[in-house]
């Protein structure tokens, strides 16, 4: 066994690793600019728990629940566990495979001596009596040396794929968090729109009653009453649609948090304002996306895995060394097993001589796959930058629209109040009143929509910046029985 160990060690040390060594691409190679093309705060912020910035306890509770109970997150955790086991299996190839065997055999001599008996037909049968026992014990080992690094490259690829699965889990986590927050904002928006519609409906009921009195008094024609009835019916028709949209948003939150669609309805039925976050967010510089965005990190690890696979393909062009050995003993008694021991050792070297260019074609195919992985990595980076800039512009747009709608509301509210007084006094017709109240409802809903858009843009910006997970760590598979992945410090050198 000592000779076998020495041979294995010598062969492993003598081996070399073929294929390119992976080096992370620089930001310039990926097309990352030095600054954003839109106005953005250059100082990055810690956005790990961005949902707490809205100061809404229910929103925070729902997001936290989705992080552990969502079914998509559970699937991502399972895929992460599968990737970990693939890495364990790959690492096992670095070590020899050892197996043992044992056996027992009983032999009986049926002729010559021993006891005998006579059958009914007169035949005499000799039972032998000269039996013997045989005990065997064996140990065998085999090892694929991997002279040219095919095993080490395979482990390298598996490790990169495992890390990519961890970042994929984080990507799913961010998506679920943002969906919960977005639907929560929508639910509060629909509550505000329902309140606006019902409030407008009460005013229109009063207008319809006043129009009826004026028609009975002969002050106006029945046209005023019909216009009032038509306006009220149109406003009433919007309520069922808003109720349907509200139900869809609330049901979606229930499913996202791993519950039945109606599970959270009692928690959210009390009307509350649309959540409001900070007016500005520290965005940082574009190169920060290479570290903060988990989808970018996953694409980078996929590129590293594809690069390692080139080495695996190239190693098949060179000789492969396999070593196997066995130790066996055979004795007639258990106590004598160590008296006679035999052993064997075999080392085999194989080399592909002719395969029609298949192996070299595999190398070229893997090189093409690596080029595709780099293009996907670069595309993911550029898409991330696009998401950030679009979210910055969307946030600014929503803030400016809220200011404009507030001005419109102030003007429309004054006009509507004046029109009601003039209509009741007979100084204005119903068409003027209808137009002013329509403008008031539009401005009121515009303010609510702008505030909801502002909150949604904030959520989009937080997620686009990679908020919602700890970017300083690599998510690792949870221990058996756990549902939430653990984290490991980010290695300084790949």
UniProtKB/TrEMBL annotation:
<dbReference type="GO" id="GO:0005886">
    <property type="term" value="C:plasma membrane"/>
</dbReference>
<keyword id="KW-0472">Membrane</keyword>
<keyword id="KW-0564">Palmitate</keyword>
<feature type="region of interest" description="Disordered">
    <location>
        <begin position="98"/>
        <end position="117"/>
    </location>
</feature>
<dbReference type="Pfam" id="PF02321">
    <property type="entry name" value="OEP"/>
</dbReference>
<comment type="similarity">
    <text>Belongs to the outer membrane factor (OMF) (TC 1.B.17) family.</text>
</comment>
<keyword id="KW-1134">Transmembrane beta strand</keyword>
<keyword id="KW-0449">Lipoprotein</keyword>
<dbReference type="GO" id="GO:0015562">
    <property type="term" value="F:efflux transmembrane transporter activity"/>
</dbReference>
<feature type="compositionally biased region" description="Polar residues">
    <location>
        <begin position="98"/>
        <end position="107"/>
    </location>
</feature>
<protein>
    <submittedName>
        <fullName>NodT family efflux transporter outer membrane factor (OMF) lipoprotein</fullName>
    </submittedName>
</protein>
<keyword id="KW-0812">Transmembrane</keyword>
<feature type="region of interest" description="Disordered">
    <location>
        <begin position="473"/>
        <end position="494"/>
    </location>
</feature>
<dbReference type="InterPro" id="IPR003423">
    <property type="entry name" value="OMP_efflux"/>
</dbReference>
<feature type="compositionally biased region" description="Low complexity">
    <location>
        <begin position="483"/>
        <end position="494"/>
    </location>
</feature>
<dbReference type="InterPro" id="IPR010131">
    <property type="entry name" value="MdtP/NodT-like"/>
</dbReference>
């Amino acid at each position: 066994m000592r000779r076998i160990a020495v041979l294995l060690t010598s062969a492993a040390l003598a081996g070399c690793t073929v294929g390119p060594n992976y080096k992370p691409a620089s930001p310039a190679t990926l097309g990352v600019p030095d600054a954003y093309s839109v106005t953005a705060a250059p100082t990055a912020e810690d956005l790990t728990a961005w949902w707490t910035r809205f100061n809404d306890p229910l929103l925070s509770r729902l997001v936290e629940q989705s992080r552990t109970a969502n079914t998509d997150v559970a699937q991502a955790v399972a895929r992460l566990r599968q990737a970990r086991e693939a890495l364990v299996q790959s690492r096992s190839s670095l070590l020899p495979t050892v197996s043992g065997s044992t056996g027992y055999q009983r032999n009986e001599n049926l002729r010559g001596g021993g006891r005998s008996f006579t059958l009914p037909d007169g035949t005499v049968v000799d039972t032998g009596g000269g039996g013997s026992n045989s005990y065997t014990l064996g140990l065998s080992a085999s090892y694929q040396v991997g002279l040219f690094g095919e095993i080490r490259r395979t482990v390298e690829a598996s490790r990169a794929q495992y890390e990519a699965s961890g970042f994929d889990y984080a990507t799913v986590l961010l998506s679920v968090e943002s969906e919960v927050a977005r639907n929560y904002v929508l639910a509060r928006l629909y509550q505000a729109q329902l309140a606006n519609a019902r409030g407008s409906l009460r005013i229109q009921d009063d207008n319809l009653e006043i129009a009826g009195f004026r028609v009975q008094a002969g002050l106006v024609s029945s046209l005023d009453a019909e216009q009032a009835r038509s306006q009220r019916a149109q406003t009433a028709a919007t309520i069922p649609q808003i109720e349907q949209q509200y139900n869809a948003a609330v049901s979606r939150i229930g499913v996202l948090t791993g519950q039945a669609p109606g599970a959270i309805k009692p928690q959210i039925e009390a009307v509350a304002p649309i959540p409001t976050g900070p007016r500005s967010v520290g965005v940082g510089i574009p190169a920060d996306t290479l570290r903060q965005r988990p989808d970018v990190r996953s694409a980078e690890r996929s590129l590293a895995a594809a690069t390692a696979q080139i080495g695996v393909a190239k190693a098949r062009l060179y000789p492969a060394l396999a070593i196997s050995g066995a130790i066996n003993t055979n004795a007639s008694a258990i106590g004598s097993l160590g008296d006679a021991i035999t052993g064997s050792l075999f080392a085999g070297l194989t080399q592909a001589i002719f395969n029609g260019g298949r192996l070299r074609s595999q190398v070229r195919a893997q090189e093409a796959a690596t080029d595709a992985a780099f293009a996907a990595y670069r595309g993911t980076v550029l898409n991330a930058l696009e998401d950030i800039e679009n979210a910055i512009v969307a946030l600014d747009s929503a803030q400016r629209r809220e200011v404009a709608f507030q001005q419109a509301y102030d003007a429309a509210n004054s006009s509507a109040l004046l029109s009601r007084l003039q209509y009741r006094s007979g100084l204005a017709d119903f068409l003027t009143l209808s137009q002013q109240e329509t403008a008031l409802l539009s401005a009121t809903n515009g303010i609510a929509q702008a505030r909801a858009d502002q909150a949604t843009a904030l959520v989009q910006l937080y997620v686009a910046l990679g908020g919602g997970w700890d970017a300083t760590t690599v998510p690792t598979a949870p221990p058996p029985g756990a549902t939430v992945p653990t984290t490991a410090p980010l290695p300084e050198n790949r």
